[in-house]
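Lab notebook, design round three. We kept the backbone fixed and only want residue identities now. Task for the bench partner: fill in a sequence for the structure below.
Input structure tokens:
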């Protein structure tokens, strides 16, 4: 996701974490106790870090390249798809351990927490769970007057921004308020509890592979049901957008709700 998506995942999680978790996170992050954006404000750090020379090693931590065959077959296999340099799933495992390890420095634990906040977001972007055409980056598409974007980028950025109308922290906070009420009392109320099925702090790989598998399935049914070549150089801002935007909303809502629970489990274990 772009900044809007990651900020929104952070704000949704802020709306659902236990107050003891909020205190735990603010302590590690060094945010003041009254910081109203303590998760949102650090949610995009990992995307800056990966473009630094010190952080270049971490570029694969943003995705898992499922070597499946959409649209006829979608699946993710940890042993097949998580490369030697790591992936989103192995990174979650690493940083979930490290953030709780008092032998590490405060700075190291802070970075680990920032990674968890970011990667749980990215796992929910379907094309971050797909190898085809570099996660859709090499599928050139148009979006309204923009005739030089790509399928990955419209999922990360253009579609969420068309829905919300901006990408600032305050745009994200307002989107998060909407999705939070959808979870608490609206369209997601009856399903939100099931989003936490199988969540297990002692098995981060299985837990997050479930989430990656769910998002990867959308690649076959929502992202490119007609096959990759159909979308090349088409304007996806009209009927494609209309068909896809509810999946963008659902995936951001799930990511925020699951991040809150993952942090609750970590904070409870780390006390
Ligand atoms: N680092 C990281 N994740 C890794 C490897 C390194 O976040 N898988 C960070 C931690 C340090 C820096 O990179 O700030 C260098 O780490 P090290 O000296 O442990 O390689
Ligand atoms: N490492 C990592 N994540 C980090 C920092 C480092 O995976 N945040 C990797 C690269 C380090 C190595 O682990 O050089 C050393 O890890 P440790 O500090 O746990 O011995
Ligand atoms: N990306 C991905 N899968 C890949 C490579 C990249 O999901 N195999 C994502 C990471 C960024 C976007 O695509 O969100 C653009 O990546 P980059 O800036 O590395 O080109
Ligand atoms: Zn992306
Ligand atoms: Zn990312």
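Proposed sequence:
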């Amino acid at each position: 996701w772009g900044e809007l998506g990651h900020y929104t995942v952070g704000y949704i999680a802020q709306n659902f974490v236990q107050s003891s978790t909020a205190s735990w996170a603010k302590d590690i992050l060094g945010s003041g106790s009254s910081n109203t954006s303590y998760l949102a404000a650090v949610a995009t750090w990992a995307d800056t870090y990966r473009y630094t020379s010190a952080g270049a090693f971490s570029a694969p931590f943003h995705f898992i390249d499922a070597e499946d065959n959409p649209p006829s077959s979608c699946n993710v296999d940890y042993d097949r798809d998580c490369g030697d340099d790591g992936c989103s799933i192995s990174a979650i495992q690493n940083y979930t351990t490290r953030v709780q390890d008092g032998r590490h420095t405060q700075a190291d634990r802070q970075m680990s927490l920032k990674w968890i906040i970011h990667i749980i977001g990215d796992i929910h972007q379907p094309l971050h769970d797909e190898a085809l055409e570099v996660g859709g980056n090499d599928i050139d598409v148009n979006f309204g007057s923009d005739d030089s974007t790509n399928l990955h980028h419209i999922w990360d950025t253009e579609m969420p921004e068309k829905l919300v109308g901006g990408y600032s922290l305050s745009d994200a906070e307002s989107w998060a308020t909407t999705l939070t009420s959808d979870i608490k009392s609206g369209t997601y109320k009856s399903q939100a509890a099931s989003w936490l099925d199988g969540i297990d702090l002692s098995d981060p790989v299985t837990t997050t592979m479930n989430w990656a598998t769910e998002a990867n399935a959308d690649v076959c049914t929502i992202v490119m049901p007609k096959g990759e070549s159909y979308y090349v150089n088409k304007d996806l801002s009209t009927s494609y957008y209309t068909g896809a935007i509810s999946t963008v909303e659902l995936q951001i809502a799930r990511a925020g709700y699951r991040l809150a629970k993952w942090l609750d489990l970590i904070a409870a274990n780390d006390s």
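Keep this in mind before ordering anything: Residues 160 and 248 are 7 Å apart (CA to CA).
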